[in-house]
Write a structure and sequence with these properties.
elongated; single chain; 4 helices; mainly alpha
Length: about 120
């Protein structure tokens, strides 16, 4: 890719020296701009693809089974295991409650509610 930019830059430089008419720069400028935009789009798509492969949306970084294995292998102390387990269980319960609760009504967006969808006071 960089060799293309260097080649294009040298061609633009030669055309600047050879011709003084600014209208002759339109085509090389458009080609250079298109190459830059395509490169940026390629980088954006590659980063998005890499991020999506790392961890699917909605999954936990560890499962309870993985925590048990780490604890059993001695990689986690009892305190670390209990703390991680408590956080994991709380997140799973929170997601379950969110999935079971009905969507908020128009006037209640962002307001806390009790478990049955009524605004809490």
């Amino acid at each position: 890719m960089s060799w293309m930019v260097a080649l294009l830059a040298s061609e633009v430089g030669r055309s600047l020296v050879a011709k003084s008419d600014p209208r002759n720069l339109v085509v090389p400028f458009i080609v250079l701009l298109a190459a830059i935009l395509l490169g940026c789009a390629g980088v954006y798509l590659a980063r998005r693809w890499i991020r999506n492969d790392k961890q699917p949306v909605g999954t936990e970084p560890f499962t309870l089974d993985q925590l048990r294995r780490l604890h059993g292998a001695g990689d986690l102390t009892d305190e670390e295991y209990d703390r991680a387990k408590t956080k994991l269980v709380a997140r799973v319960k929170e997601r379950a409650v969110q999935a079971d609760s009905p969507p908020p009504e128009n006037g209640d967006r962002g307001k806390p509610h009790d478990g049955e969808g009524r605004p809490s006071s």
